[in-house]
Amino acid sequence: MGFFDRLSNVWRGFLSLWVSDIENRNPEAVYESAIDERVRKHRELKKAVSGIVYLRNKLSTELETKERSLKEVMTQLPIAIEDGEDEVALVLIQKKDELATDIERLSHELNKVSDQAEEAKSGLLEFQGDIQKLKREKDQMLAAKANAEARIQIQETLDGLSTDADVKALDNVREHIDKLKAEADIGSELQGESLDAKLAKIKGKAANSSARAQLSEMKRQMDARRASAAEGGVKKTI
Predict the structure, then answer these.
(1) pLDDT tens sequence across 187-222
(2) Which residues contact 116 (CB under 8 A, 6 or more apart)?
(3) Which of 77, 80, 111, 79 is nearest to 97 (CA)?
(4) Exposed, middle or buried: residue 53 (CB in 10 Å: 0-12, 13-18, 19+)?
(5) What is the pTM for the complete model shown?
């Protein structure tokens, strides 16, 4: 194989791949093209079948005409013989024989053409059925293609939603909430360590100490009064 032959083979291979790629990306166009081609062939086949049917009908009409003519001859022949018209009878006999031969030939041809017509009509109906079947297949395959593409798109979308991203998002939210809680806690802690808070705490302790001192003094005074009263009672008794 020469260089140009090999180059031609490579080119045909690339061209075949290119065409296949186009066909795969445009399945509807491929189906429509196949359907259109079958419809065109169906028209041609229908035209051919119509020619056969026409010939069958023509033979049938011709046969019927010959049979009527033979019937007339067979009716005329006895009359000619009875009337002594031998020459007419001879002509009628010749005509009878010719009609019988024609009728036999036409019957044979009609049977043959009728069989061809029935076979052709059957093939035409079958071909028409194939076209309808191909149309249904086109609808089913395109629907299956659309469904598969939708499923692939959904799967790709789901694949893009990584669980790691979801976990990271949750961690970010949790961390943010913990920071807010810590910010609130540090506010409370700082408030407890402020100068005002310390003064308030000291004032509270001082007020509590003063109250306790007053309470102790009041108890002491009450104890002194009770003791004095008890002493005065003893003196009066003596």
Answers:
(1) 565 555 555 666 666 676 766 777 777 878 888 888
(2) 52, 56
(3) 77
(4) middle
(5) 0.47
